[in-house]
Amino acid sequence: MTKTLPDLVPDAELNLPLERERTLNNGLTVIAIRRSAVPLVEVRLRIPFGRAPLAPATLLSQALLTGTGSMSSIDIAAELQAVGGSLAAGLDPDRLLISGNALADGLDRTLELLAGVLTGAAYPETEVATERERLGDHIQVALSQPGHLARVALLSRMYGAHPYAVQTPGPEEVRAVEPAALRELHADRVRPDGAVLVLVGDIDPEQAIDTAEKILGGWTGSAPDGTIPATPALETGPLLLVDRPGSVQSSLRIALPALTRTDPDYAALYLANLVFGGYFSSRWTENIREDKGYTYGSYSSIEHYVAGSALIAAAEVATEVTGPSLLETQYELGRIASLAPGEEELEQARRYALGALRLNMSTQAGLAGLASIYAGFGLRLDHLRDYSAALSAATREEVAAAAAKYLAPSRAVTVVLGDAERIEAQLAALTAVERSAA
Amino acid sequence: MAPRIKIPATKYPVERFTLGNGLRVVLSPDRSAPVVGVAVVYDVGIRSEPEGRTGFAHLFEHLMFQGSENLEKLAHFRHVQGAGGSFNGSTHLDYTDYFEVLPSGGLERALFLEADRMRGPRLTEENLRNQVDVVKEEIRVNVLNRPYGGFPWLKLPPVMFETFPNAHDGYGSFEDLESATVEDAQGFFDRYYACGNAVLSVAGDFDVAEATAMIERHFGDVPARPAPRLPDFFEPDLTAERRESYVDRIAPLPAVAGGWRVPDPIATFDDYLPFVVLAEVLTDGDASRLVERLVQRDRTATTLGGYIGFMGDEYQVRNPTALLLQAHLPPGGDADKVLRTIDEELDRLAADGLKPGELDRTQARMATRLLHGTDDVLGRALPMAVLELQRGRPELLNDLPKLISEVRAEQIVAAAATLRPERRASVEVIPGASA
Do A130 and B330 touch (CB under 8 A)? Predict the structure, then answer.
């Protein structure tokens, strides 16, 4: 008995949530978005942090909530918890991001505690010493993780002398940072001018902005220009083989050039990447996982930083099939760069891209993340309308042209981390290999 | 002391019914976003796999994605993603779940796909060999090639438990995985993947009458097969402390995890819930007891976590299970000292009780985390399916924040008093990589 797959009901028009925005006198932009499904509020504060010194900035992100003139780290944590709240800070090469959530009734208290930290973080000696050791230990553990080591090698290979080349400090660099350096960095860079606060949840957006203005209005000042120069073009060269003796898998990483979100060809490139390796039903995954069983998962995505975008493809493959995995990867890149995608596979990727946008907008946390990331690039949620329209309109020819330009294997920068003794010959059969120690 | 914040609740509607073939259905409509989540859970997990077939429940989960009556290999993935959706499945100790989240227009397609594989997956030698390879790579990624792989969820059960169902490695040995056969898979499907042994749940943007009609249409003709008898995996509690250690050749720093048995999560839910709250009192955030003591004050631990259930699924696990504490230590850290300090803090809690506000704030944060989980359609569809499967009570998801807020200080103290060293099983990671 054969049964027929039911048709899809076409999507309704994209519906953006109620959103308000105001830039306060201190230069802080507040964006408030209503999604009232659960009585919570999501908080994202993005502070530009480009070119901040890496080790102190990383430690600052870990020690920011460890005390003010009037509160200990435990006081801050307990008071946040009392309104169902939690906040944490994280760093990337472009920004410091303080993120968390709380019960909606706890928004005022959460913002008061946040303001207390922004204007009065004390970086107490004892707490900083603790966080310094913890961070050093965490980095040491990261250095035993193949994914981290492969990324370190790839970034270095991609960016050379550019500030994006190194994104994690060494444990010894962290252990040398004194509290005074954190206080100085905080005074210099943790400033409202140019920062963006996103609030999403069961809130009245206008009222939430009033609240933020009242509570965060006393946070003042501007930071020196942290603009990062545009990323350099990728320089191709031999495959970089990073030795990790005893590794039972090889970490395959490929960087390719990419476009920024606002480029007219971005939607076409995004779709080309999906067809190649950007989702499970991609050629790459169907080939090296579902046909060959070389990997548990392969995935390619476009990563956006303020100073430039890049496409990164990643897979962990069995040591004994590292060469064959590279071969299939190069084949799939060559195929998408040389031949236009099929009509049906393009439509499938297009529907996936449009659906993923709706799924991402369906939760408070998804909206908050999206709004905060977009704000970092000067965009607002209404960009989703343009982007959806561009995804809907991209033609097969445009997708093929983007793939030919950006997914060509001749433009790839390739790094493989694994047991060099067991994989070097496999790789050298396919391409020139340059070996480095981990 | 600020007044205690009011703990809010969700009011997601819940409709339940059972099809003629015995399939239980839970519907929870909510039209706040144009997306739907569909989950099918089967009442079989790691604890039910046969001896000599470690990892089989998980391997079988992979085979459920390899085609079915009307679907070629790869079709499931393409149909879900081509509807704008995402999919996955996961294997737990007591159940296996399969799920999709899609724009609402894809609901009927998702139901079709789940019904088709409920009638029977395409079990072929080629697909089996392919997925054995994929699962081996999964184990390498998650266990063998990473520091602290399988710690503590695969490493502590064999210390704590005696019987095969509770103690064995649920990811499986390569030897067992490689010796799995198509006949094993067919037998496993026949025995456990009966519609009487499953729950279908749908949450999100749909009309109940329309969804009910779709469910009848697609699942109504799945042949009725009864559920197998639910096994009892009970084993007696420890009567003396158990300690083990192992060398992790990749890990650069030591770590330790300890576990204590807790009351039956289902038969004695009221006795169990205080342990769920206790785990948070001990470890949630910088103001929690053990983080304050071990991480901030003594600096004998770098990170600390506490939770119930080896897979962190405290409302979706059956007896026997455990409250777990795990700590990563600094270079040269002393696991024994960490365990002794934990004992000391538990004694202090049992003797002196909670501090003012300590329980209220923990309950408030737990409420936020629960509510946060339910904002996602799958964060409703999945737990409701399992709550129906294990308890016949999907609406419990709405009630949890309130039930947690009603746990009293004396119950926490009494729970803490049971976590004695002589009832504890622990496992220590000895770093094998140079620091």
Answer: no
Cis peptide leading into residue A169 (ω within 30°) = no
For CATH 3.30.830.10, list the domain ranges present in chain A: 19-216, 239-437
Cross-chain residue pair A355–B103, CB shorter than 8 Å: yes
Q: What is the DSSP letter of A121?
A: B
Q: Decide if A145 and B330 are in contact by the 8 Å CB cutoff.
A: no
Q: With a CB-CB cutoff of 8 Å, which residues 209-238 of chain B face chain A?
A: none
Question: What DSSP line would sit under B377-394, residue for residue?
Answer: HHHHHHHHHHHHHHHS-T
B35 reaches A (C-beta below 8 A): yes
Nearest CB to A355; choose among B85, B330, B367:
B85
Residue B369 and residue B359: Cα distance in Å, rounded? 15
Examine residue B152 and say whether the peptide bond preceding it is cis (omega within 30 degrees of 0): yes
H-helix or E-strand containing A41?
Answer: strand A40-48
Would you say A256 and A406 are in contact if contact means Cβ atoms under 8 Å apart? yes
φ/ψ of residue A304, rounded to 5: -110, 125
**Domain boundary assignment for chain B:** 15-219, 242-431
Q: What tens-digit pLDDT sequence spans chain B (435 residues)?
A: 567 899 999 999 999 999 999 999 999 999 999 999 999 999 999 999 999 999 999 999 999 999 999 999 999 999 999 999 999 999 999 999 999 999 999 999 999 999 999 999 999 999 999 999 999 999 999 999 999 999 999 999 999 999 999 999 999 999 999 999 999 999 999 999 999 999 999 999 999 999 999 999 999 999 999 899 999 999 999 999 999 999 999 999 999 999 999 999 999 999 999 999 999 999 999 999 999 999 999 999 999 999 999 999 999 999 999 999 999 999 999 999 999 999 999 999 999 999 999 999 999 999 999 999 999 999 999 999 999 999 999 999 999 999 999 999 999 999 999 999 999 999 999 999 865
pTM of the model: 0.97
- CATH annotation of A19-216: 3.30.830.10
| Superfamily of domain A239-437, CATH level 4 | Metalloenzyme, LuxS/M16 peptidase-like (3.30.830.10)
Nearest Cα residue to A314 out of A412, A216, A195: A412
Q: Find residues 233-272 of chain A whose CB sits inside 8 Å of chain B.
A: 246-249
Q: Of 3.20.20.370, 3.30.750.210, 3.40.50.300, 3.30.830.10, which CATH number belongs to B15-219? A: 3.30.830.10
Assigned CATH for B242-431 = 3.30.830.10
Mean pLDDT across chain B: 97
Virtual torsion, Cα A174, A179, A184, A188, nearest 10 deg: 60
To the nearest whole angstrom, how far is the Cα of A37 from the nearest Cα of chain B? 7
Contact B2 A11 (CB under 8 A): no
331-370 in B: which are within 8 Å (CB) of A?
331, 357, 360-362, 364-365, 367-368
